[in-house]
Amino acid sequence: MQDTVYLDVLILENFCMDLWLLWLEGKLLRKKSSMRRLLAGSAAGAFGAAAGILLPGMPKIILGALLPALMQQITYGRRISLFSGCLFLLFAACLAGGFVELAGRISGFHSFFLWFPAVLFLGGLVVLFEELKREERRLCQVRLVWQNQSICLTGLLDSGNSLYTPEDHRPVYIVEKRSLQCWKNRKAEKILWIPYRSIGRDAGALPAIVMDELWINEEICRKLPVIAFSGYPVSSSGQYQILIHSQEVSI
Asked: How far apart are the C-alpha atoms of 16 and 110, rounded to whole Å?
């Protein structure tokens, strides 16, 4: 019994798979390429796989090593090491192909129809991973100093925090009130009121005081920072307790 191979389906399936693998490689290795180069690299991989079917006598090394190297060179050039790029493509192709083959045997569907949901699912995981890493890079260690005592918090470099004092236009840092409970019995010389507007909440004013110092990652010191107190948690997950002003985002 002989299996029937539809060349157009084979090329399309390999093209979609190669396009996804090359995009995934760029995402994980943090390298960029144009859509034209991505499509060209994927097309090279697809037609190379078809040539392997049409020419059964073709040496295995061409499909196993030279074809990934060609795809790599077309898509990313010297942006990614040829060796590490080929290694990634081969490993990811084996891993993804194994999952799709297993799912096909269990479900009875042709592997072509399983690549699309597999791409969506794994691509979604990559985007989620990138977002988590991006937020992690925006986190910093903050130390507040006031009346000869200090407290350490986790801060978020927040490009959305653009509050300033209305009188002298000084940046305002927003801390959730409950994180400073150990200082609740202390008395400030002066209370400032910082007007704000936010989506989903009425406009209002946050109480604020001037502290002695604010340290970011023990490297950057802001003298006499204006610290506003929020009655709401600044992080729904509790990951951070203070919002750093947007002027610090570039640090």
From this structure: 15
- Alpha-carbon distance of 185 to 132, in angstroms, equals 37
DSSP code at position 214: E
What are 84-121's pLDDT values in tens digits? 777 777 777 666 665 555 555 555 555 555 565 666 66
**Tokens linked to 22:** 């090359």
The 3-class secondary structure across the chain, one letter per residue, is CCCCCCHHHHHHHHHHHHHHHHHHHHHHHCCCCCHHHHHHHHHHHHHHHHHHHHCCCCCHHHHHHHHHHHHHHHHHCCCCCHHHHHHHHHHHHHHHHHHHHHHHHHHCCCHHHHHHHHHHHHHHHHHHHHHHHHHHHHEEEEEEEECCEEEEEEEEECCCCCCECCCCCCEEEEEEHHHHHHHCCCCCCCCEEEEEEECCEEEEEEEEEECCEEEECCCEEEECCEEEEECCCCCCCCCCCEEECHHHCCC
Residues forming CATH 2.40.70 domain(s) in the chain? 137-248
pLDDT in tens, 42-60: 888 888 878 877 777 777 6
Distance CA(3)–CA(110), nearest Å, equals 13
Q: Does domain 137-248 have CATH number 3.30.1490?
A: no
Residue 85 has which token pair?
Answer: 């790029």
Provide the β-strand partners of residue 201.
198
Q: Please, what is the end-to-end C-alpha distance for the chain in angstroms?
A: 66
* Residue 31 exposed, middle or buried by CB count within 10 Å (0-12, 13-18, 19+): middle
pTM for the full predicted model: 0.50
